[in-house]
């Protein structure tokens, strides 16, 4: 294997481990110039190994879904930061919705760390329900539905029918892709439908997405931006991208 091929394989492996990489990461790890790093990313994107972003790249999950346990290992500090911001929006006595996804798992664990005296959580995620079940002062409503083993989410007509009978004050929505023009996307069509239904039953919706999910799309559309109150992301969002979202009228937290 040539030195160039070995370096590019190393870039892909780091993406598999961490979910994202910056041009600076490539320069530091492989001791190459900025031009070489950018050329590597361009070639790997052409080979459909990654998607370039502002100053770096992320895994191409439009075609390949990352297993849940691997997602839990990716960007944990960023997800904790987002969970802390989401927790700060929740008020005593609220009825909140938590869709599936690893970032909402961090939100659930933040609630466990500092429980409310009275809180109702509506979720279609088995793992989140398991985390929160038995927490004093918390009323847990599970949607029912068919479980998808890749995500632990319950979805389909049974889940949608349950949601139709509930009014949610604040929904915290996870997404695989967040893109300014296309909107919010995910990997599975049935899950997209159930997530959309939860948004429609909610008075407010907050999208949770770390910086690696921004400016990218997955296969199936959940919803556009018209029902979104704010996008909660982490402090590593590139300044240029932050400016673009704010200029489009999207509130960032």
Automatic annotation (TrEMBL):
Domain of life: Bacteria
PROSITE patterns cross-referenced by the UniProt entry: HTH_DEOR_1 (PS00894), HTH_DEOR_2 (PS51000)
Domain (HTH deoR-type) ranges: 4-59
Alphabetical UniProt keywords: DNA-binding, Transcription, Transcription regulation
Pfam family, one: DeoRC
InterPro entries, A to Z: Carb_Metab_HTH_regulators, DeoR-like_C, DeoR_HTH, NagB/RpiA_transferase-like, Tscrpt_reg_HTH_DeoR_CS, WH-like_DNA-bd_sf, WH_DNA-bd_sf
Gene Ontology molecular function: any one: DNA-binding transcription factor activity
Protein's name according to its UniProt entry: DeoR/GlpR transcriptional regulator
Source species of the chain: Cohnella endophytica
């Amino acid at each position: 294997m040539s030195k160039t091929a070995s370096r590019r394989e190393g870039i892909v492996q780091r993406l598999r481990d961490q979910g994202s990489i910056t041009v600076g990461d490539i320069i530091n790890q492989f001791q190459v110039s900025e031009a070489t790093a950018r050329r590597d990313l361009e070639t790997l994107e052409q080979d459909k190994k990654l998607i370039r972003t502002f100053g770096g790249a992320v895994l191409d999950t439009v075609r390949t879904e990352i297993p849940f346990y691997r997602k839990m290992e990716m960007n944990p500090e960023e997800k904790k930061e987002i969970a802390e911001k989401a927790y700060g929006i929740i008020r005593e006595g609220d009825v909140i919705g938590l869709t599936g996804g690893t970032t909402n798992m961090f939100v659930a664990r933040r609630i466990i760390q500092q429980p409310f005296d009275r809180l109702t959580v509506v979720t279609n995620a088995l793992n989140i329900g398991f985390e929160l079940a038995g927490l004093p002062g918390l009323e847990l409503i599970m949607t029912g539905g068919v479980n998808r083993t890749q995500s632990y989410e319950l979805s389909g007509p049974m889940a949608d029918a349950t949601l139709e009978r509930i009014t949610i004050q604040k929904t915290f929505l996870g997404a695989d892709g967040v893109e300014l023009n296309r909107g919010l996307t995910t990997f599975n069509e049935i899950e997209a439908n159930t997530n959309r239904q939860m948004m429609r039953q909610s008075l407010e919706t907050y999208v949770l997405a770390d910086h690696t999910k921004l400016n990218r799309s997955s296969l199936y559309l959940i919803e556009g931006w018209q029902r979104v109150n704010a996008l909660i992301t982490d402090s590593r969002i590139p300044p240029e991208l932050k400016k673009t979202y704010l200029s489009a009228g999207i509130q960032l937290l």
